[in-house]
């Protein structure tokens, strides 16, 4: 009896597909929790600050930037670890040699939906990459709403 050839980055292995889907759900859930808790901390922290609106708004902006960088790193590390565990998860063309910073770069391009096209995912890993773009878009717009509300609050005060 002949066996099917193993295709790196193929969709033939349901265990691999389910693993990528579960990893994606965990990473997205973690990023949403980090974002929620981070914005909650920023809201409480900014409410206790004294001083000009400028100081409040700048601290809020820097805080939001830190949150996004952290979330980009979470996705980048997840991609890096998945590809270290098993090549059946897929591959990312354009990242040679495999450096964690290349995965974080790819994650930043995906998260922000810039999509330069210089790095291309293949295989089941594309599910995580596509979901990262959606999650990044949602988290970025959430931050924009947060920033808008904070600016309204503090600019009205001055």
TrEMBL record:
Domain (Potassium channel) ranges: 69-148
Keywords associated with the record: Ion channel, Ion transport, Membrane, Transmembrane, Transmembrane helix, Transport
Gene Ontology annotations of biological process type: monoatomic ion transmembrane transport
Keyword Acetylation part of the UniProt annotation: no
Presence of keyword Mitochondrion: no
Pfam families, sorted: Ion_trans_2
InterPro entries named in the record: K_chnl_dom
Transmembrane segments: 14-36, 57-83, 134-155
Name of this chain's protein: Two pore domain potassium channel family protein
Species: Oleiagrimonas citrea
Lineage: Bacteria, Pseudomonadati, Pseudomonadota, Gammaproteobacteria, Lysobacterales
């Amino acid at each position: 009896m002949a066996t099917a050839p193993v295709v790196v980055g193929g969709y033939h292995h349901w265990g691999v597909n389910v693993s990528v889907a579960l990893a994606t759900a965990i990473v997205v859930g973690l990023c949403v929790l980090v974002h929620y808790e981070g914005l909650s901390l920023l809201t409480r922290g900014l409410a206790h600050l004294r001083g000009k609106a400028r100081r409040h708004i700048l601290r809020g902006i820097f805080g939001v930037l830190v949150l996004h960088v952290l979330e980009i790193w979470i996705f980048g590390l997840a991609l890096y670890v998945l590809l270290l565990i098993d090549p059946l998860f897929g591959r990312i063309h354009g990242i040679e040699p495999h450096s964690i910073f290349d995965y974080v770069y790819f994650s930043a391009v995906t998260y922000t939906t810039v999509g330069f096209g210089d790095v291309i995912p293949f295989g089941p890993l594309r599910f995580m990459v596509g979901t990262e773009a959606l999650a990044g878009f949602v988290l970025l717009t959430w931050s924009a709403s947060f920033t808008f509300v904070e600016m309204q609050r503090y600019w009205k005060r001055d």
